[in-house]
Amino acid sequence: MNRRNFLIKAIAGGSVLPFAASNANCNSEQEKNISKGLHAIRERVKLAMLTMQRASWEQGVAAQAFLESGQEKEMILMAREAVLRQNEAGRLAVLYHDWGSTDPAASGEAVLKAAKILDSQHLKKAADKMLNYLLNNAPRTKDGILFHPLEKPEIWVDSLYMAPPFLAAAGRPQEAIKQIKGIRKYLWNKEAQLFSHQWNVKNQEFTRKDFWGVGNGWAATGITRVIDLLPETMDDEKQELIEYTRQVLEGCFQYIREDYFFHNVLDDQSTFVETNLSQMLSYTIFRGIKSGWLEKEYLEVANAMRKAVHTKVDRFGYVQDVCGAPFFDGPGRATEGQAFFLLMEAAYDDLT
């Protein structure tokens, strides 16, 4: 089912209801109560996230959540911790053995922002060191596309979120575009309009061909961030990335369930029903509409996914049934699931 037909069916069935729709006639007291409720659930999610042990990319996506939520103090604290754990190679937020090559760059934009706010040469040098690693020292293909793991010649879809946004934020938008196009060349399935997960360059075969839901979420959200970071002089490249993002949305929406969630492997109904992709796509849509490059007709399904996700937050603030840490092979909880709830909410607030 294509997106347009899906939306028509959903709206006709009355199942797609923006949060604001049922509140259109609220009085001021009701609005205050709704606002208090939203604040309370976000604070629970935030607190739960801060209690979690975090790998390098998890530190980065959590810091990004604070950056986009306008929580400057928390963002600075997260950035400084990432710099404290920067290794000699320049990789940020490394905890003992960290096998990710691009993962540490997820903290990069927050470190850049914190350096600017604090006028800190220490933080600026740390960001420059991370940038130098990506540009000159990280393992890569012969045509310059970054490997995701340190110890394997593999390209992963995860890298679309980890590296290109930082490259664009650090003043290297052309390199960000190069990485997006290169990763897409290896992993994009044109027929399915979805990304496979992992390609082994040495063996010339997929390590994991599955259309992993969260992997396609990493792609959509990472490219979305780059779109908004590109300079005006790169409008042609921006339009190309917009089309990439639309295609990912279309590919995912072929497999959306009636409850507005997706299976962990999108086209495999035997895999568990997963929460995080709905957050990631809602974020993408809210950001795209706010920035003026995505059609407003996507808003109905974004609101419906957001509403569904809110039902997954338990009394401790955990967003349940995301692709769960530490192995990400079953439903559970994870820092990235917490962070993308907050990112989704920040994008929703910016739009509304």
Average pLDDT score: 93
State the domain count: 3
Strand content: 5-15%
SSE topology string? HHHHHHEHHHEEEEHHEEHHEEH
Number of helices: 14
Q: What global shape is seen?
A: globular
Question: Going across the major beta sheet, what is the strand order?
Answer: 1-4-5
Which ranges are low-confidence, i.e. pLDDT below 50, for 5 or more consecutive residues?
A: 8-24
Query: What profile does the largest beta sheet have?
Result: 3 strands, antiparallel
The total strand number stands at 9
Structural class assignment = mainly alpha
CA radius of gyration: 19 Å
Helix content: 55-70%
What's the end-to-end separation, in Å? Answer: 29 Å
Structure, explained:
The chain is mostly helical. The protein folds into 3 domains: about 110 residues, no CATH class; about 80 residues, no CATH class; about 100 residues, no CATH class. Helix content is about 55%, strand content about 5%. It contains 14 helices and 9 strands. Strands 1-4-5 form a 3-stranded antiparallel β-sheet, covered by helices on one side. The protein has a two-stranded antiparallel sheet with strand order 2-3. The chain has a two-stranded antiparallel sheet with strand order 6-7. A hairpin with a 4-residue loop joins strand 4 and strand 5. The longest helix has 24 residues. The radius of gyration is 19 Å and the shape is globular.
